[in-house]
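Appendix B. One record, verbatim.
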Amino acid sequence: MTTLLNTLYITTPDAYLRLEGETVCVMIDDQKKMQVPLHHIGSLVLFDHVMLSPALLGRCAEDGRSVVWLDRAGHFRARLEGPVSGNILLRQAQHRAAESPEITMNLARYFIVGKLRNTRQILVRAARETDNEDDRAALLEAAHYIGLYIRKLPMIHELDTLRGYEGDAASRYFAVLPLLIKPTSRELFPFAGRNRRPPRDRFNALISFLYALVLSDCRAALETIGLDPQLGYLHVVRPGRPALALDLLEEFRSPLADRLALTLINRGQLTATDFDEKEGGAVLLNDEGRKTVITAWQTRKQETLRHRILETEIGIGLLPQIQARLLARYLRGDVEHYIPFLTR
């Protein structure tokens, strides 16, 4: 198992990164604030207005080290890519699969099964842990209906119907998700349903930011394996949209992003001072809030769990890489089924 290389996140506006020998220097107001050995960095994720020297950009492209630019809210702006990686035969298999209605339907179903199984598991676990009988009943009811959706998925043979079931199940999940927030924090983090672009409350701002971080890792994993992140199966293909990365993200939304969001809130690691409210109602994490979330995300990625398929302990940060490899094996015809990541 390869060691997980670190991702360097830069959140300070107007920071400047330059190459100094075999290190990356982070300059802020013409002062050196950080110096990191280049070989310790697997990728760079830059928020808002962060600049890189031409020498550092060229070295990252040469080494195949990804550089991703996100806006303040964590939405994707651009990505630096070096030479195309991976075997052309794998990409040909990916395109052939996209032309097959049967394979496309199978993959879309696998991604949704993974998402719904993981969301249901979170609700069942929360129902076991709560002392509030009304909350427990609401959580178990939502878990029951999501279980019904899961059982119906094998009988669905149209993508639009499949997407409709996924949307209905997601609505039930988000309707009870506030019950996982401690009562003392619910006033500070009100949540009446999913909204985005821009998020209208602190909880939506937080999970949108985390989804963007996980999506970046999913896209990097697919590119590392040699797959085209824009050619997906569940999500509609559109120019500039990483449809396959969004497909892969579905398995990780609740076990990685939502769980971490709830942990940060329930432990009091985020407060109102970590968010900015803009004119028009938009709510975004500010610099301090982003630093807190990114630090927690990097720590979480270093934790380990036992993978159901590999039957071995792996770092959580490697999960997108593992699933991308399993997807590549399915597309090549090496295995009969793609098995999504399922949390315990």
